[in-house]
Amino acid sequence: MNAPIGVIDSGVGGLTVVKEMLHYLPNEEIYYIGDTARCPYGPRTPQEVVKFTWQMADKLVEMGIKMLVIACNTATCVALESLQKHSKIPVIGVINAGAQAAIKATETHDIAVIATAGTVKSAAYENAIASLYSSSNITSLACPPLVPLVESGEYMGDFAFDLVKTSLQPLKKARFDTLILGCTHYPIIKDLIQKAVGEQVHIVSSATETAKQTLEILKFQGIERTAKESPHHKFFATGSLPIFKEIATNWLPLEQVDAARVTLK
Ligand code: I24
Ligand code: DGL
């Protein structure tokens, strides 16, 4: 089936999921919406995030997608269930894939999750992990400074490492052998996070796991793209296009990024 896969996010962070999808599903076509005008979702109320997420999903369904991937952790927490319930197409989010991979990776069943305030408050990772293995010991930590750190572009030097160390300080008291990166932006600073928690900790990126799960679902449903011509991905943003295009071009292994402005209502 040659229809595109829809991917939605609060802004540009979901491009970490797109990058993994380009790797694991190179023949699939992707339509992406980033709600850059209203980003970040992390500090918003669940009601707002549900409304915005539905608006993006509706827009992509109108464009004819065959499956929807919610790349934003914060949006997945509050909107996945209702979208799954009311959509005719398969809908997945980043939480379950991350939770499953953590259960596979852990040897002690002690798992830590770092995420935005919204994601931690929803307890979505705890619930997902507990539903897979009920006696897991889970520690969740909100790290509000880390999204702005990545978005500042200054995530390479000593300042960045100090900020990561300070943000993760509360984990020092916790016992865990596996850490889930429960936010779109964290894979970009994975090396700093690994250094801060120690090399012995398994780090699970929800972005990678979601791309792999997308492939499984396409296969299971028999809706993989069969067209031979290379896919033409389309990107949409609610905010500034030049900034969006610059980040996407810089991040994704694509010659051209076809990006347009979209309004949501
Ligand atoms: N990374 C992110 N967001 C930004 C940024 C960045 N600016 C530099 N880098 N800006 O997220 C968000 C601000 N909005 C304003 C409105 O329009 C859209 C952007 C993480 C990127 C995930 C792929 C640093 C940077 C980059 C390219 C790739 C990776 C990266 F420029 F971290
Ligand atoms: N995309 C969000 C997430 O994965 C991070 C940025 C935001 O707060 O909107 O939770």
List keywords for this structure.
265 residues; Rossmann fold; binds ligand I24; 2 domains; 11 helices; 4-stranded parallel sheet; binds D-glutamic acid; globular; alpha/beta; 45% helix; 17% strand
The ordered H/E elements are: EHEHEHEHEHHEHHEHEHEHE
Whole-number tally of structural domains: 2
The largest sheet is: 6 strands, parallel
What coarse outline follows from CA principal-axis ratios? globular
Report the total helices: 11
CATH class of the largest domain: Alpha Beta
DSSP strand (E) fraction?
15-25%
Helix content: 40-55%
Specify the CATH architecture of the largest domain. Answer: 3-Layer(aba) Sandwich
Gyration radius, rounded: 18 Å
Q: What does the average pLDDT come to?
A: 97
Number of strands: 10
What structural class results from the helix and strand content?
A: alpha/beta
CATH topology of the largest domain: Rossmann fold
> What assembly state would you assign to the polypeptide chains in this entry?
single chain
- Spatial arrangement of strands, main beta sheet: 4-3-1-2-9-10
Low-confidence stretches: none
Terminal Cα separation, in Å? 29 Å
What hetero molecules are in the model? Answer: ligand I24, D-glutamic acid
Q: Can you offer a commentary on this structure?
A:
The protein is of the alpha/beta class and 265 residues long. It has two domains: 5-93 and 208-261, Rossmann fold; 95-206, Rossmann fold. The protein contains eleven helices and ten strands. It has helices spanning 15-24, 46-62, 73-86, 94-105, 117-122, 124-132, 146-151, 158-168, 190-197, 206-221, 241-251, and strands at residues 5-9, 30-34, 67-70, 91-93, 110-115, 137-142, 178-182, 202-205, 234-237, 259-261. Strands 4-3-1-2-9-10 form a six-stranded parallel beta sheet, with helices on both faces. A four-stranded parallel beta sheet has the order 6-5-7-8. Strand 7, helix 9 (190-197) and strand 8 (202-205) form a beta-alpha-beta unit. Helix 1 (15-24) crosses helix 10 (206-221), helix 4 packs across helix 6 (124-132) and helix 4 crosses helix 10. 47% of the residues are buried. The mean pLDDT is 97. It binds ligand I24 and D-glutamic acid. Ligand I24 binds next to helix 1, helix 7 and helix 11.
